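Structure ticket #2291
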Amino acid sequence: MNGRVLAVAGAKGGVGKTTTSLNLAAALGADGRAVVVVEADLAMANAVDFLDVEVGGRPSLHEVLAGRAGVESAVYPAPGGFDLVPSGTSLEGFTDANVSLFPEVVDALQGRYDAVVIDTGAGVSRETVVPTGAADATILVSTPRVASVRDADKTMSVARRAGAPVGGVVLTKSGTGRSPPAERIAQFLDTDLLGHVPQDAAVPESQDAGVPVVAHSPSSDAAVAYRGITEELRKRPDLIGMGAGGDTGGFQFGNVDTAADGGDRF
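Resolution: structure written out below.
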């Protein structure tokens, strides 16, 4: 298997990158694809706040990037039918993490999954550029607000320089305020509109429940929108490939108990 790697990116914080990453993973997993989300926000991790995933004292991506654990010991089955490699939450873990090892982590996962979704952090720094550069393509996430769109435009330049061309934009919290139509924003960004997700109370409710909205409230407006975006991805082999990998299933690492020392870390 040689799965596709997608970076979900946007320099502006709070636009819904993590929510989008988790819901696209769940929707792609419903196809029978083996999907893993890698939380690459090394400084401000929040995926486990949105998912009912018990990490406890087991390793996170921090320990993997510090060379203290193999990636197989930092993969956790998540509600919604996909796997998650969560980032850590401690300042010490962030300080010890060597982001230059991130591409090796992705290479290891790419051999086990149909799709690797990288949930990138906000801002423009080495901690966001390196993970983005490990992807085959980038999906922009932005709200319709002017500041967010401007930051999305900056993210496009970063992604292109990193070698992960932008395949389209997802607009979140759409239909609010006096923002331009979604199609006009995509035209301004000179990229395809993959879809727009309306403001929907089902999203925070699903986060409180620890389950992606596509699984928690499948008939909600947000869930319908995320499934529509996933349908657009299915039409794009350059973004997500041709289909599921067949006899190689997901959850390849989640149940593996790996020793803390010895052997290949990745």
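Closing remark: The two ends are 16 Å apart (CA to CA).
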